[in-house]
Specification:
4-stranded antiparallel β-sheet, binds heme C, about 50% helix
């Protein structure tokens, strides 16, 4: 039902273009998808660590996160992914030009003291493939993440072994809590005139 309403709203824009109102509505809708996604992931991660330790929790980032992202994408007619400037899985997490530019802008804002928890960007972008609404929300590293994304002395030898086997080009270590690990990125196509 929700998807239908969204579709009608999108179609009604085709003749009139996109107004500022729509930008903020899309932004709110995106935020309403990104925040529960991150909360659920953190909860799944905590549960998995408690039940089976960090080695078993690896599947939260490898299986649960992409599956949740895929489900949200299909249910809402958009593309939700996780991207980073320092990726572990380059196949899923490499940012495109728009994402890279805005992740760098997030880093610049963090360097000036802004907290990543509230950092967002939303924009209507015209690209060769068409017009789309684009959104990113920064992912702040939490204490529960350092066991796999922290400094070498915070990562157990078992986890290290798994990571180096599965991700020979891993760049996603050396983070401390409060830093920007990456972002949730949402791209939603907009009908052309
Ligand atoms: C048990 C180990 C583990 C923990 C704990 C963990 N991650 Fe990950 N993380 C991974 C693995 C493995 C990947 C690569 C997933 C894949 O193959 O797509 C990953 C990938 C990511 C990515 C996607 C971008 C990339 O680098 O590929 C983000 C963003 C991310 N993790 C954030 C977090 C955050 C935030 C936390 C804490 C709430 C966290 N992770 C906790 C193991 C972990």
């Amino acid at each position: 039902m929700k998807t239908k309403i969204t579709l009608i709203a999108l179609l009604s824009l085709t003749t009139s273009g996109v107004y500022a109102d729509d930008l903020s509505r899309y932004q709110e809708e995106s935020r309403a998808l990104a925040i529960p996604f991150l909360k659920n992931l953190a909860a799944e991660n905590k549960k998995a660590v408690e039940e089976g330790g960090h080695e078993s929790a690896i599947k939260v980032c490898t299986e649960v996160a992409p599956k949740m992202a895929g489900d949200i994408s299909r249910q809402n007619g958009l593309k939700l992914t996780r991207v980073s400037l320092k990726v572990r899985n380059p196949l899923l997490g490499t940012p495109d030009a728009w994402e890279q530019k805005n992740l760098q802008a997030f880093e610049a804002r963090a360097a000036k003291g802004e907290k990543p928890e509230t950092m967002e960007v939303a924009e209507i972008v015209q690209e060769p493939a068409g017009k789309s609404f684009r959104f990113m929300k920064a992912i702040a590293l939490q204490p529960g993440c350092v066991a796999c994304h922290g400094n070498a002395d915070q990562i157990s030898s078992d986890v290290k072994a798994r990571l180096s086997e599965q991700y020979p080009h891993d760049k996603a270590t050396g983070y401390s809590p409060g830093q920007i690990r990456g972002a949730v990125s949402i791209k939603r196509p907009i009908e052309q005139n």
